[in-house]
Amino acid sequence: MSTKRKPPTLQQKKEEVNRKAILWISASLVLLIALIAVLFVFVGN
User: Fold this and answer.
1) Which UniProt key words apply to this protein (predicted)?
2) N or C: which end of the chain has fewer CB within 10 A?
3) CB atoms closer than 10 angstroms to residue 8
């Protein structure tokens, strides 16, 4: 009798978390840059 291999669910979950983390980091960076740009515009005026 051969033992069935378990699917690597942990690795898949890790990749999913990494993808979400990258998404959040990029979104926050874009927001930060936008805020800085808005501040510069207000200070310029």
Assistant:
1) Membrane, Transmembrane, Transmembrane helix
2) N
3) 10
* Per-residue tokens: 1: 């009798």
Q: Sign of dihedral through CA atoms 22, 28, 31, 37? A: negative
Q: For every one of its 45 residues, what pLDDT tens digit does the chain have, with 9 covering 90 and above?
A: 566 676 666 666 777 778 889 999 999 999 999 999 999 998 886
Structure tokens at 31: 């927001």
Q: Where are the beta strands (DSSP E) in the chain?
A: none
